């Protein structure tokens, strides 16, 4: 409900396998103390742009949701250390604003429908690319040429739609 925005001192919010459907209310942007936001296996269809207001957020995990896009405002989450948007239905490209996440040590975008080229700004991240536990973008439709920092770590990509 929209009243979730009244929980301004909330530090952790985990939604796991609830029978929730619809959208995350824009009032989520009021949760300025939130450090961990985790949703697994619920029917939430979009990430509101107001998520960019959560400046203290350290961990964002949206797994097995029918999400369709990564908002560019995700680049505002400069304290984010873990971003996992795996097993969704994400479409479109990885926004170049991902390079703003200077504290990110783990990025997982496995099993989505991401397309296009990977932005060079991804190389600005402080991730140990060679460990799957820290970086995994396999099983998408991302096109070469890949940024040099990750060219050996992109995993299996369906490049049939690439030029």
How much helix is in the residues?
Answer: under 10%
Calculate the mean pLDDT score and round it. 94
Cα radius of gyration in angstroms:
15 Å
Approximately what portion of the residues adopt beta-strand conformation? 15-25%
The helix/strand class is: mainly beta
What does this structure look like?
0% of the residues lie in helices and 23% in strands. The chain has 163 residues and is an all-beta fold. The radius of gyration is 15 Å and the shape is globular. It has strands spanning 12-16, 21-22, 36-40, 43-44, 59-63, 82-84, 91-92, 106-108, 113-117, 135-136, 141-143. It is built from no helices and eleven strands. The protein starts with 11 loop residues before the first strand and ends in a 20-residue tail after the last strand.
Note the main attributes of this structure.
163 residues, mainly beta, six-stranded parallel beta sheet, three-stranded parallel beta sheet, 0% helix, 23% strand, globular
